[in-house]
Amino acid sequence: MALRTAARRWLPGALVDALARAARRATWLRRPLPPQEPFPQVRAAAARLLVGPTNSAGQGWAWARAAERVAGDDVAAACFAVRRNSYGFADDYGVPVPVYAHPQWQRAHERYVVSTFTHVVIESMRPLFGSRHARDARGDVAVLTEAGLRVALAFHGSDVRLPSRHAEREPWSPFRIRDDLTERLEEQARRLAAFATAFERDGGPVLVSTPDLFDDLPGAIWLPVVVDPDRWQAPPSPRRRRPVVVHAPSNSRLKGTEIVEAAMAELSAKRVVEYRRLEGVPNDRMPAALADADIVVDQLTMGLYGVAACEAMAAGRTVVSYVGDAVRERVRERTGHDVPIVEATPDDLADVVAALAADPDVAGERAARGPGFVRAVHDGRVSGSVLADWLRRTTR
């Protein structure tokens, strides 16, 4: 590390990065390639789509299935994932980090992708081929495009959301704290947004999973998050005297978990609610966890809604979150539907939840609207149509 820092004083950054990649590759080449599953066969179709490599919250797999569902036999799709955690999201094939980092696998994967697929959706600018070409996916984009494949870029949120812009826009933004995380995300978002903007200017589609990201990429196309309504369907809430309130912080800082827990501790002490924090719960156990809840508090700082809120709405639970007027209006303009999430902020969360606990009819009415909203906007038909339209227009 010290040698690399010193080298940056005398050599161009790109050269230093290239030398570092070469050194890593030499180290990895001396290691045996761990056992791995063979690359999957993809059925013959006019368009063969690959989505990867992050599969964030299972969305890569869900988008692949949505494209096939809408386009039918015209499209065959697969999701590739670098398997970094144990949450158990479905994919079509994937590898752990040691395989992803191995040059032998990287070369084989590149040959497989180029020879198998016609279209690729790259998530979060993460490279499909490890560090083979660059630290992000710009090298992969060049290789795929030169090979004749059509490429789209998809972003999920913190990958391209500019913290400084978010802090100006949102009064409770977690990025008003200028720490190492904020600075790291700021540099990443500026770099990726610059590439995405140039990519879009050259005719490449840029997709975003949540409507708030139009502030960062105004020319992007909304590719809504997808959940399976049937998987999350649950019996109606039993309307307990003390409602069970759950909060599942995938990222405590971005969800505002500290604020949530303080407010729920206050209500729990008054015996208004029973509070449960869900953390580290595998994906296959989350439907049961939500079914055992009455109210789900999602997040209080970001001004959006995503996969977790959609899952809770699909389960018919009352969802409380800070969505914001801008996102609500964007969804209404594009879909004709109102987002049935109860609005709350850090200033009034305890009051909002207490009011819902005191009036189960109001809470039940809002909860009852959730499953219909998810089926209309987030069951995959909208996202599948977005992808199918691109695939049909660009199939050779």
TrEMBL record:
The entry's keywords: Transferase
Single annotated GO MF: transferase activity
Name recorded for this polypeptide: Glycosyltransferase
Species this protein is from: Jiangella aurantiaca
Lineage: Bacteria, Bacillati, Actinomycetota, Actinomycetes, Jiangellales
